[in-house]
Amino acid sequence: MATKHRITGVAATAAAALALTACGGDAEPGQAADDGEPAGEITVITQRTDIVDTVFQDYKAQFEELYPDVTVTFEALTDYEGEIAVRMNTADYGDVLLIPTSVTKDQYATFFEPLGGVDELGETYRLVEEAAYEDEVYGVSITVNTQGLVYNKKVWESAGITDLPTTPDEFLDDLQAVADHTDAVPYYTNYADGWPLSQWDGNRGAMGDPEYQNTHVAHSDTPWADDQWHGISDGLLYDVVAAGLSENDPTTTNWEESKTLLGSGQVATMLLGSWAITQMQQAAEDAGGSADDIGYMPFPHQVDGTFHAQVAGDYKNAINVNSDNKAAARAWIDWFAAESGYAYDEGGISPLLDGPTPETLGDFDAAEVEYVEMTPAPAGQEAYETDVVNAAEIDLYGNIYRQKLVDIARGAADGDKESYFADLNQRWADARATVGE
Amino acid sequence: MSTVSSPVRGAAARATATPPPAPPRRGPGRGWRVTPWLFLVAPLGLLVLFTYVPVANMVWYSFTSWDGMAPVKEPVGLDNYTRIFTDPDMFSVFLVSLYYLAGAFLQLALALYFATILSFRTRVRNFFKGIIFFPYLINGVAIGLVFLFFLRPGGTLDALLALVGVAEPPQWLGNPDLANISLASTSVWRYMGLNFVLFLGAIQSIPNELYEAADLDGATSWQKFRFIIAPGIKQVIGLTTILAISGSLAVFEIPWIMTGGANGTTTFVIQTVQQAFEFKKFGLASAMAVVLLLIVLLVTWIQRRIFPDEKVDLT
């Protein structure tokens, strides 16, 4: 399930400014019909606490001008995943909400209104299969991200590096050069905040195979072998930390601060989704630099001489199955994807097939990176990987096992790379046996 | 209301006998039998609704494999409990609690020490009372963040140590041997004020004549503490000991905010939260919560057996 994990970052951008604009304002029944013209009151739940009072108010004005019968209210949740999961035990979870990652595909129909068939929506939108179950689509991405490493170009250049690393070993050499020739910390793990570590999982497309997770990962007994994605990506993370190329004390890192560190060149590199580029550019400007200081490079792994990067949908707007104003909710979802400009402003790829590509990904164009859209798991297999993850208690989409990995690599926990990867492989294989194919 | 006098009862009986039944009249100082229960409906209802029903639900979940979302909760019998008691990883986290337990006893000793000193005439003692109690009033999240900055490399603590010539301080949170000690110390800093206030209140309730008599007999400060204060506040010491032990078994807030349980600082409650919200094992997590509840009850029971609740008589 490639859909599951690269969204925390967006939530994390939420600054302190929490504003619950409305509370539970479900539309009154009878005010508008389910089918037919968009009308009535809809509550849109968002994770963007930082812009709900600014940018989203503009969206509201534009939307209500287009649909005068509709009134939109927003509810922004600071801890989106945690709070929405609790509310979904009731019927009161807004009219439009973002599909939480904790909902498995076979549960979609219980909570969300189907939006249409895969073929039908697939003519308009990218990556509809990510939120589809049994040929029905339940959500539309708010933006589409790709994966790579955000880095400070000035620092890398002053370390004498001119070309992009194409293998993990070259990447390590480059980081070593940064360590030797500059004062910058070559790589920043963001260990304490945790979620940035989960980004290491999100680029399976780097293997260049859209079918990768249908043939490997949950379908392999050894995902941490040398030639498999988790072996390569987690192995690189291990090597970076073990070589002392990451921050000195990972337990006291701070995400908000890390943006300034990268922007000002005190940190050279971080592995993050493309959503982070705009934020880093902002940080660079705030630190007195220029947005051009921030570069974006593909994961250092090539297949047949070409870089690959995965594209995947961010959070997906969906309609509460209990909503009284589904037509209005649907109109909001379509308008948000097509007209709001949210994806472009966030530096993301448009959820529309013919939407604009952002300028922030110019580096990827220059490196001739090939985008890979992962094929979703076949029918009946959608929940399989999550089931294996939960059974193995190895949080591929989280940070617990990767924090342990960093601890081992920096010598703060027992073991070494071989023993830990062997242990992970063992637990994974056991879990696969329990869950069954 | 068992003390309703017989003439009234007769009057009430007569009143209810006449159709249509008129409400029983109430005289001064008397009432219906149900009156106290009517007053209790609201608190009891809230208690049942918000305490016992959720706990009953949790116990029921602990026998299922519920993932926290699915409408169906599949019963799995004792599987969750078997897992907790057979998987060594599950119980080994209680070792982390030992740090907090040691911290708790240090905290009790310090609190008792300060309470004793400040219950006698000390210069600016109200100021010191305020200083010691103050940390308890701060929000736990704020404390976590403050200490995160205090303990980070190059942070306040390191800066202070540099002033006294410590050039290479250890990583207070990064070093796995120190991380739990740092966190437990933070916990001591936060909760000592509460114990302090409890002790101080108890000490001040000891009648002054006892001290005067002791002074006349020429008792030293230590003797006053040993033979007047300590026995006088025995019950409060017992109570705070239970709270300290159950608190150190159920540590959550400070390690969760400061390290998220990373670097070997995972406590039993953090592990419970991870099972529930990371791996969607609400059934298992509920079982862990039940086990923790039982352990705390057991500790309390043992404590009551060792220190029975007896009346203290200082005279």
UniProtKB/TrEMBL annotation, chain A:
The stretch of residues making up the signal peptide is 1-27
Domain of life from the UniProt record:
Bacteria
- PROSITE patterns named among the record's database cross-references: PROKAR_LIPOPROTEIN
**InterPro entries from the UniProt entry:** Bact_solute-bd_prot1, SBP
Per UniProt, which keywords does this protein have? Cell membrane, Lipoprotein, Membrane, Palmitate, Signal
Does NAD appear among the keywords? no
Pfam name, any one = SBP_bac_1
The keyword Signal appears for this protein = yes
Concerning PANTHER family, the annotation shows: ARABINOSE-BINDING PROTEIN-RELATED, POLYGALACTURONAN_RHAMNOGALACTURONAN-BINDING PROTEIN YTCQ
* Name under which the protein is recorded: ABC-type glycerol-3-phosphate transport system substrate-binding protein
Could you tell me which species this protein originates from? Answer: Isoptericola halotolerans
The upper taxonomy is: Bacteria, Bacillati, Actinomycetota, Actinomycetes, Micrococcales
TrEMBL record, chain B:
Q: Which Pfam families match?
A: BPD_transp_1
* Listed CDD domains: TM_PBP2
How the protein sits in the membrane?
A: Multi-pass membrane protein
| Annotated stretches, region: Disordered | 1-28
Transmembrane helix recorded as keyword? yes
Q: Cross-referenced InterPro entries, in alphabetical order? A: MetI-like (IPR000515), MetI-like_sf (IPR035906)
Q: Any idea where the ABC transmembrane type-1 domain is?
A: 93-303
Keyword hit for tRNA processing: no
Cell compartments where the protein resides: Cell membrane
The membrane spanning regions, by residue number, are 34-53, 98-120, 132-151, 188-206, 236-258, 282-302
Question: Which SUPFAM superfamilies does this entry report, sorted A to Z?
Answer: MetI-like (SSF161098)
Q: Which segments show compositional bias classed as Low complexity? A: 7-17
Q: Which UniProt keywords apply?
A: Cell membrane, Membrane, Sugar transport, Transmembrane, Transmembrane helix, Transport
The record's similarity note reads: Belongs to the binding-protein-dependent transport system permease family.
Q: Which PANTHER family match?
A: BLR7065 PROTEIN, INTEGRAL MEMBRANE SUGAR TRANSPORT PROTEIN
Q: What is this protein called?
A: Multiple sugar transport system permease protein
